[in-house]
Amino acid sequence: MLNMLAALQSRAAGACLALLFGLSAPVTASLAQESRAQESPVQEVMSEDAAVAMVREQTDGKVVRVDRKIEGGSVVYRIRVLSPDGRLREFRVDAATGLIL
Questions:
Q1: Neighbours of 63 (CB within 10 A)
Q2: Residue 90 and residue 54 share a domain
């Protein structure tokens, strides 16, 4: 009789866990979709590669790092360049307009 009660408790616990995990999955997916929907849509006209090429041509330097940031709702590439005279310079390129800021 005790074995039968223990088996029922074990099955009930398993069913509760399955139900709990089954109900939490849609909530997690819903939160992920909501998070993506809150991100502001940004427009990129210029690719990262094109921005790097433009800065490299204008500076004759060596690009050492590129970061993609969103500033004020626009994508901005921060490009760090080691100039021929040994100085490290940073250029910011607006991806929507292609202009160096």
A1: 16
A2: yes
- Taking only the tens place, the pLDDT of each residue in 44-86 is 789 999 999 999 999 989 999 999 999 988 999 999 999 999 9
Token pair belonging to 34: 């909501």
Q: Say if residues 93 and 45 touch (Cβ distance below 8 Å).
A: no
- Identify the CA nearest to 84 among candidates 66, 60, 54, 56: 60
pTM of the predicted model, to two decimals? 0.57
Give residue 26's domain range. Answer: 1-39
Cβ-based neighbours of 37, under 8 Å, separated by 6 or more: none
In three-state secondary structure terms, 60 is coil
Are 54 and 33 in a shared domain? no
Can you tell me which residue has the tokens 């607006």?
94
pLDDT in tens, 8-49: 466 655 555 454 455 544 544 444 444 444 455 666 789 999
